[in-house]
């Protein structure tokens, strides 16, 4: 066996999604063999992010500043807000560089099964953000799952009466598919063909 | 896009074996969402290993102490030395708990293609270790590859004349297979059926 410190590191890495105990061990060996060229830079990058990590109080994005880089960017169109379930979805959409507006992260989706209620998500902050004015369009970019669409319906109801156009991503998305796993082409098509809700 | 600090972290993680850009991004999101329960413990574990990492001057194992835990362990039989190509192989064999002796890590294998010569590997230190006495058996546990077996032959020649029994892992190992990927059952069988060389 390796030393307790190394075994503890393998266990921590094995908890990351996509890494099991075996690949975590290989990753540790990779780092150990490249102490200066891989281990030190990774440690520096992790420390930098860990020390500066903050949740944007405006949109729920996680970034190293609050407001986040997107909320603080004057070139982004504040009149359009894209609502997503998770930070991962925000990143996936934003990597595509197709949406020029701002975002709003719900922090999950309504789920009777998991006991997730409207008050567990950042839905009220979204309503307040839209009610504050200056927003023309809210793009509902929930996953194309039953729970994602239930969440979209709920938000549609909550925003009713506010002077804002609601759209949602076109369902060229594969049914049951999750945004974060889609290629940019699919995302682009879904975004281009977004349509009014209700 | 996420902040430059987060993008830098994704890039560092994506360089680990078994992780690509996509899974690195998911890993970062996983950490970011679990700052106290996952991110902080991982950072602590990485820092602890990085600060104490050292190569054992006796056997070439990488550990948090020198001599390493195996070399320092009086319950391990110093009369038997198992020679492996890489630290990964040492760990794989040692996890099986089947070999009660010590180890010797070569740091690679002879390879005309990659320009790896005998002086690039820890072969002379092995010869000195055996020549110093107190060693009854040297188990050659190279990979069952052409280069691994070439290395084993070379070491066999170099140890000729020294009063030591040379054995090698039985080739129940799949041809072309690499030690580090084998299940413990295969390793156990290969170790049990080890046979004299030459
Ligand atoms: Zn923000
Ligand atoms: Zn050692």
TrEMBL record, chains A, B:
Keyword terms of this UniProt record: DNA damage, DNA recombination, DNA repair, Metal-binding, Zinc, Zinc-finger
Short name of any one Pfam family annotated for the protein: RecR_ZnF
SUPFAM superfamilies per UniProt: Recombination protein RecR
Zinc finger (C4-type) stretch: 56-71
GO biological process: DNA recombination; DNA repair
GO terms of molecular function: DNA binding; zinc ion binding
InterPro entries: DNA_Rcmb_RecR, Rcmb_RecR, Rcmb_RecR_Znf, TOPRIM_dom, TOPRIM_RecR
Stretches assigned to the Toprim domain: 79-174
Its job: May play a role in DNA repair. It seems to be involved in an RecBC-independent recombinational process of DNA repair. It may act with RecF and RecO.
NCBIfam families to which the protein is assigned, alphabetical: recR
Family: Belongs to the RecR family.
Name this polypeptide is given: Recombination protein RecR
Native species: Sphingomonas lacunae
Gene name of the encoded protein: recR
């Amino acid at each position: 066996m390796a030393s307790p410190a190394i075994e503890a590191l393998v266990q921590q890495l094995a908890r990351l999604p996509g890494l099991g105990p075996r690949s975590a061990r290989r990753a540790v060996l990779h780092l150990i063999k490249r102490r200066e060229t891989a281990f030190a830079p990774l440690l520096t990058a992790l420390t930098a992010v860990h020390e500066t990590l903050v949740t944007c109080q405006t949109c729920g994005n996680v970034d190293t500043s609050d407001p986040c880089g997107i909320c603080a960017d004057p070139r982004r169109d504040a009149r359009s807000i894209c609502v997503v379930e998770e930070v991962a979805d925000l990143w996936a959409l934003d990597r595509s560089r197709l949406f020029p507006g701002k975002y709003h992260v719900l922090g999950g989706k309504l789920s009777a099964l998991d006991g997730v209620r409207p008050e567990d998500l950042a839905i009220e902050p979204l309503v307040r953000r839209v009610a504050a004015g200056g927003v023309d369009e809210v793009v509902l970019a929930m996953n194309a799952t039953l729970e994602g669409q239930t969440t979209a319906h709920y938000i549609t109801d909550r925003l009713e009466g506010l002077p804002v156009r609601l759209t949602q991503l076109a369902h060229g998305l594969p049914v049951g598919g999750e945004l974060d796993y889609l290629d940019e082409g699919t995302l682009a098509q879904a975004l281009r063909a977004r349509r009014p809700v209700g």
